[in-house]
Amino acid sequence: MYDFHHYDEPSWFLQHFDQWDNWQEATNSTNVTVIISEYQVISIDTPDGVASFSSPPSQKLFFPELFSAIAEGVYQLGAERNPNVVRMMALAPVLANYNNYESSPNTVAYTTNDTLPSASYWQQWLFSHWRGTQTLPVLNTLGALNPLWWVALIDEPSGAVYLKVINSGNNAVPLSVNIDAPYTTVNGTILTSGNLNDYNFFNNKTAVYPRPANLPDNGSGPFKWDVPPFSSTVLQFNM
After folding, report:
1. pTM summary value
2. Is the peptide bond before 93 cis (omega within 30 degrees of 0)?
C-alpha cells in the first residue's frame, strides 16, 4: 500500500478528480492499493499554482471555507469511484487548539470548553455517513464532468442507492437520473451556503452545515432536480 499526502489549492483537487482512474495499470502497480492519509485545501488558488504552509496571509486559509469542502469533496468522489485502489482517506491536520496551534487550516478547532467542526469536517461527515458497500456504473448521456461531479453506490443491506453529486460551479445545473429499478422515495442531504467563502466560527458554527435538501416530487419517473451552485449533496433512492 502506498501512502499519499496532498496539501494544495482547490483547483488542484478538481484537476485530480481522475487521479485514480486506471492508476494501477498506468503505473504498472498491479494489485497495489493506496491510502491518502493526509489531504486538505490550504490556500486559495494562487497565481503560480503553488500552495504551501508558508503562503502569505492573503493566500493562506485560517479556517476551511465552503470552497475547501467542495474541492475536497470532488477529490473524495474520484477516490470513491476507485475503491479497488483507494482504500482509506483522512483529512489532516485534524485537531487544533484554537489558542495555541502550529498550522492552519484544521479540520476541528477547540478551546477549553468548546469545539468547532469546520466546513471540511462536515463534508467528510456527509460522505462517510452514506458510504455504500459497492460502487455502481453510471452511464452519462448528457453533459460532462465539471461543474457536476458524481459517484453512485449501493448499500446492499438496505438496498438503497446513493448518488453523491457536487456542483462546483456558480450556477444551478439540471440533473436527470434514471435508475434501472423502481424506487419509492428520494431524500437528500446538502452541504452549501450563501457564499463560497463562508466558514464556520465559534459564534456561527452552522454557516456551512449539512441540511435536508429541498427536492421535487418526481413520482416514480426519472428524478429531475436543479443542483444548486457550490453544493455537495447525497441523494438516497429508497428502493
Report:
1. 0.94
2. yes
